[in-house]
């Protein structure tokens, strides 16, 4: 018998939400959805100010959910067993197209098996070995960004993050296929509107069915490119380019999945495509927010350049604070399999819980003067104060964190050394929501200038 779950989870397997004791917003779903996508911070702040730390919302993407906003409750819910608070099922409410046979979409017991299979690719020691390669790619991009004319960080950072992901995580060194895959994934995830509409879910009724057909059509090029890479590996045609041989360590995600032995194309794609989705937008938005912040903190640039311990520590604090004020993933999602009590309220089995980092990262109960950008605060705070969860927590904590941190570190160092980023809008932009990530409403326009002396 297969250890993997069926390709789709029957709707009946997800129990109805019962939130009798939980106060709920009464506005229509579509109104809540618009308000949330336009300004998640304000929407959630308003909801919790009116109803308290535990409040029911009804959003078009996730359906009915209970927002749990007290920092100590976030701590409690992220330490509950992954079989009781199920992340895979929670995420599939929002990312309906993610297969339950993937790390992103699975739950215990399959999750441990699927995560273990690809873990060597994400191992911190492996990622550290590829540091020079990541640094090379980051600087190559930064040097090619247009000088002295407006450009949007969001677009530049997406291309950069995609490039690093294709090389380091997928081991795709083919200079045509790597960028082609990045473009195909971008087209697959592109959604209209500002704030953008969420990607489709097959559970969205007739509209969802149409959206699913469109999504399948968009996924096809991604799948074709991944299968072309797989075919080359299977036939031993994988070629080593001269300047990136460190990448060919046989530990990239595709190698890990293939090492499991013969599998059909569908089974391979069910594992690979969600990893590609997870590895695209969060790091791209993380990079955007961090570099936008650097642009606004030009006075700190000199102390963040270089590789002495002081600069490295300074970058760690800078990144920690940038991810605090603008968490790239807006919330953690969990589906409860058993009742759990939070802030004196009993949440029933079947409840979808939303732990909103956009709110908890700005909570004055944890952070003094939360609206101020102050990296120095990380000298006296624990690494993971209650409610601070940019990479999640527990068994489902972001597997890509070591790569994400390396990418952010190299980008801050390279930008502080080589360019001057001039923000074109006076204030840090409002976050809008797209699926599970936050994006700057105007895409973070900047002017890139050469740094004197470079
Ligand atoms: C700044 C960059 C990133 C941020 C802020 C971020 C954030 C997150 C968060 C909040 C979660 C949910 C954790 C939870 O539910 O407890 C997550 C899960 C995940 N992330 Fe990331 N991520 C980033 C980069 C990446 C990268 C580069 C990859 C590479 C593929 C990746 C792959 C994943 C996967 C596969 C999961 C699911 C893990 C599991 O359920 O076991 N992420 N990420």
UniProtKB/TrEMBL annotation:
One Pfam entry for this protein is p450
Family annotation (InterPro entries) = Cyt_P450, Cyt_P450_B, Cyt_P450_CS, Cyt_P450_sf
| Gene3D superfamilies noted in UniProt | Cytochrome P450
* Record keywords: Heme, Iron, Metal-binding, Monooxygenase, Oxidoreductase
Is the keyword Cell division assigned to this protein? no
- Where is the secretion signal located? none
Which protein family is named in the record?
Answer: Belongs to the cytochrome P450 family.
What protein is this chain from? Cytochrome P450
Q: What is the organism field in this record?
A: Aquipuribacter hungaricus
């Amino acid at each position: 018998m297969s250890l993997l779950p069926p390709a789709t989870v029957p709707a009946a397997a997800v129990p109805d939400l019962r939130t009798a004791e939980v106060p709920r917003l009464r506005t229509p779903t579509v109104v809540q959805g618009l308000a949330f996508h336009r300004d998640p911070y304000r929407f959630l702040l308003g909801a919790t100010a009116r109803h308290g730390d535990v409040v029911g919302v009804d959003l078009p993407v996730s359906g009915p959910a209970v927002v749990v906003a007290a920092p100590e409750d976030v701590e409690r819910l992220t330490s509950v067993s992954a079989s009781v608070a199920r992340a895979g099922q929670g995420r599939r409410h929002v990312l309906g197209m993610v297969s339950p046979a993937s790390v992103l979409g699975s739950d215990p017991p399959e999750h441990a098996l699927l995560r273990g299979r690809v873990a060597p690719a994400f191992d911190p020691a492996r990622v550290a070995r590829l540091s020079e390669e990541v640094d090379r790619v980051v600087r190559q991009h930064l040097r090619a960004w247009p000088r002295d004319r407006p450009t949007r960080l969001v677009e530049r950072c997406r291309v950069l993050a995609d490039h690093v992901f294709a090389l380091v995580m997928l081991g795709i060194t083919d200079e045509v296929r790597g960028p082609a895959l990045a473009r195909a994934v971008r087209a697959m995830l592109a959604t209209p509107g500002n704030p953008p509409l969420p990607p489709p879910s097959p559970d969205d009724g007739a509209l969802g069915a149409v959206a699913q057909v469109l999504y399948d059509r968009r996924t096809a090029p991604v799948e074709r490119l991944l299968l072309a890479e797989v075919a080359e590996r299977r036939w031993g045609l994988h070629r080593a380019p001269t300047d990136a041989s460190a990448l060919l360590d046989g530990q990239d995600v595709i190698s890990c999945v293939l090492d499991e032995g013969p599998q059909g194309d569908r089974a391979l794609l069910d594992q690979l495509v969600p990893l590609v989705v997870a590895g695209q937008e969060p790091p791209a938005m993380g990079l955007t927010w961090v570099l936008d912040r650097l642009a606004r903190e030009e006075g700190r640039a000199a102390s963040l350049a270089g590789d002495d311990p002081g600069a490295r520590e300074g970058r760690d604090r800078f990144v920690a604070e940038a991810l605090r004020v603008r968490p790239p993933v807006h919330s953690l999602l969990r589906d409860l399999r058993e009742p759990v009590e939070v802030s004196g309220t009993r949440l029933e089995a079947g409840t979808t819980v939303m732990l909103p980092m956009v709110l908890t990262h700005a909570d004055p109960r944890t952070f003094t003067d939360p609206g101020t950008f102050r990296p120095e605060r990380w000298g006296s705070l624990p690494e993971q104060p209650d409610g601070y969860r940019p990479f999640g927590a527990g068994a489902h904590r972001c597997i890509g964190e070591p790569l994400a941190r390396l990418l952010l570190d190299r980008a801050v160092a390279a930008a502080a050394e080589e360019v001057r980023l001039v923000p074109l809008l006076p204030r840090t932009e409002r976050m809008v929501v797209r699926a599970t990530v936050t994006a700057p409403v105007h895409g973070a326009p900047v002017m890139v200038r050469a740094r004197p002396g470079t």
